[in-house]
Amino acid sequence: MMQQRIEGFSLIEVLVAAFILFLVLATVTISYTGAVKSSLAASESLKLNNYIPVLSEHISLDIQAGENSGSAVFLGVEYQWTAELIETKPVVAFYDADNREVRQSDTQAYLWRVNLISRYNNRQSQHSFEAVSWQKAL
Fold first, then answer.
1. Nearest residue to 135 via CA among 101, 112, 114, 116
2. Dihedral angle at the C-alpha atoms of 16, 21, 27, 28, nearest 10 degrees?
3. CA distance 14 to 38
4. Are 71 and 79 spatial neighbours (Cβ–Cβ below 8 Å)?
5. Which residues lie closer than 8 Å to 117 by C-beta, 6 or more apart?
6. Dihedral angle over CA of 5, 9, 15, 17, nearest 10
7. Between vectors from CA 106 to CA 105 and to CA 112, what angle results, nearest 5°?
8. How many Cα atoms are found within 13 Å in the side-chain-facing hemisphere of 13?
9. What does each of the 138 residues of the chain score in pLDDT, given as a tens digit?
């Protein structure tokens, strides 16, 4: 009796190939998922930190108006701030050209430390900066 030669892959070869294929697919999927999560996290961090200069200008104006804390929502970013007085000094003397004399200013300068907390989605960021305000002495 003659044996016929059967062409094709054995079951073991097919299983090994399938295992390698699924291993590669799993690695690619995990890498892609990690990249998407990192991209979203970077996007949220950028949104949180991108508006800090604009927020600091608004906060400085609020401090100049006499506020020492506040909160608001700005373009989807919720923020809360408090200001603590660090130092008070008189504004330096100035030269009055009309009267040709050095005069003392009646304005006080105030240095504030501002703590800012901003929130967007599940992310939170804290920043601290200094602001200056001034007011005529009473």
1. 112
2. 170
3. 36
4. yes
5. 79, 80, 81, 124, 125, 126
6. 150
7. 100
8. 3
9. 567 777 888 899 999 999 999 999 999 999 999 999 999 888 888 877 888 888 888 899 999 898 999 998 888 889 999 999 999 888 777 777 888 888 777 788 899 999 999 988 888 889 999 999 888 765
d(CA 117, CA 81): 6
Burial classification of residue 114, based on how many CB atoms lie within 10 Å of its CB (0-12 exposed, 13-18 middle, 19 or more buried): buried
Show the 3-state SS of the chain. Answer: CCCCCCCCCCHHHHHHHHHHHHHHHHHHHHHHHHHHHHHHHHHHHHHHHHCHHHHHHHHHHHHHCCCCEEEEEECCEEEEEEEEEEEEEECCCEEECCCCEEECCCEEEEEEEEEEEEEECCEEEEEEEEEEEEEECC
Q: Is the pTM of this model over 0.70?
A: no
Note whether 105 and 94 are within 8 A (CB).
Answer: yes
Give pLDDT, residue 2. 64
